[in-house]
Amino acid sequence: MSGVAMAMPLLTADRLWRAIVAGLCGNIAHGTLMFLKDRMGWLPTFQPYQDLQRVLGEVFGESVQPALPWVLSFVNGTLVISLVFALIYARLPGRSGAAKGLVLGVLGWLAMGLFLFPMLGRGLFASEAGLGLWPAAFSLAMVLAYSVFVGIAYAALDRTRSTRG
Q1: Residue 13 burial (CB < 10 Å; 0-12/13-18/19+)?
Q2: Distance between CA 153 and CA 165 in Å, rounded?
């Protein structure tokens, strides 16, 4: 077996379904926080999904349906990020799934603040949203809601698998 194959854990069917279920749990936590944001009127001028919709429309040269950014986020959270998490789980620092999810979340928040928000025209960590540090703080809460729940769910499913066989 090559060094690359030995270094990178395989994405088995067992790891795949655990990652997808964990990603769904993370999406529920993230979606709940976004629902509360809208219902409670928190940061009404900070609308990252609307910003993404606008930029996608500019890139493709036509109007983009409001559901598209939500669908992209759902697919990204359920499949892409959760599968990456499953592949790097053993290498992430921390003893619990929550701690490993926290690490993933902080890394995701840094990437979002340094790359995504500037691409959306909001500046580093959405500093140009005109709301001070609140967008950065809320985006951290938003990402941690997702990632910590992914970590907890993935670890719980892994523990369940370990006790069965």
Answers
A1: exposed
A2: 19
Q: Which of 102, 83, 63 is nearest to 21 (CA)?
A: 83
Q: Residue 70: CA atoms inside 13 Å, Cβ hemisphere, count? A: 10
Max CA-CA distance within the chain?
55
Q: How far apart are CA 15 and CA 122, in angstroms?
A: 36
Distance of CA 47 to the CA centre of its chain: 16
- CA–CA dist 45, 115 (Å, integer): 20
Which pLDDT score, from 0 to 100, does residue 5 have? 47
> Residue 12's pLDDT band (boundaries 50, 70, 90)?
confident
| Separation between Cα atoms, residue 53 and residue 68, nearest integer Å | 7
Nearest Cα neighbor of 89 from 23, 33, 142, 2 is: 23
End-to-end CA distance of the chain: 26
pLDDT digits (tens, 9 = 90+) for 80-107: 999 999 999 999 999 999 999 999 999 9
